[in-house]
């Protein structure tokens, strides 16, 4: 499978614990995005990278959230001191900068439940 | 069947009928639009996109229409099948080909009755 890969697919954690999600984008895609989606809503943008540079961050990304893409390939999203309001699906997406456009492809998401 | 997106978030059609899902986008500066299909428990799946220099684009069984005057986007699905049942989102993007965030609409749930 050469699509966007995310893991773990499901995570249940206790409030106050830290969690980390990993995303492997489509090979050679230089842009990588993180979104959050709650039930019944559309995905909301969190942040995006072009290669290893984090170019934009949403105000939704509080100081408990940190995303990295150290080598311009895979990315991690860490949530520290989780709260029940963090329960959501965290989606990763990637795209390739090029003349053909900027089609953004999503992974299957990582479900987080904070209890 | 036809929906008005934000006002009628659920659209129910008979198998074989054509479906029209509507979306009103927010930013007149948006120059790239995408329709995604999302099945329960899965990530959004790319269906079709359109740039602002076009008003119509066709794919396999799907057509996207763009009316920039009224900031309106629609997705037409021909001969709707049970496998088309899902939530459909429109998304807009500013600065085509320069990356950046997608802004998603509320979504419309399409239910296909056999």
Task: Describe the structure in your own words.
The complex is a heterodimer of chains A (115) and B (114). With 115 residues, chain A is mainly β. Helix content of chain A is 0%, strand content 49%. In chain A, a hairpin with a 2-residue loop joins β5 and β6. The model of chain A has no long low-confidence stretch (mean pLDDT 92). With 114 residues, chain B is mostly beta strands. Chain B contains no helices and ten strands. Chain B has strands spanning 10-14, 19-24, 30-38, 45-51, 56-58, 62-67, 72-77, 86-94, 102-104, 108-113. In chain B, the strands form two sheets. In chain B, strands 1, 3, 4, 8, 9 and 10 form a six-stranded mixed β-sheet that branches. In chain B, a hairpin with a 3-residue loop joins β5 (56-58) and β6. Chain B is globular and about 40 Å long. Chain B starts with 9 loop residues before the first strand and ends with a strand. The model of chain B is unreliable at 2-8 (pLDDT under 50). The chains are: A mainly beta (115), B mainly beta (114). The interface between A and B is medium-sized, with 28 and 25 residues.
**Content-based structural category of chain B:** mainly beta
Supply the number of helical segments of chain A: 0
- Give average pLDDT of chain A, whole number: 92
Largest sheet of chain B: 6 strands, mixed
Number of strands of chain B: 10
Q: Share of helix among residues of chain A?
A: under 10%
Main beta-sheet strand count, sense and barrel state of chain A: 7 strands, mixed
CA-based shape of chain A: globular
Distance between termini of chain A? 33 Å
Strand content of chain A: over 45%
Number of helical stretches of at least 4 residues of chain B: 0
Q: Spans of chain B with pLDDT under 50 lasting ≥5 residues?
A: 2-8
Question: How far is the first residue's CA from the last residue's CA of chain B?
Answer: 14 Å
Provide the low-confidence segments of chain A as ranges.
none
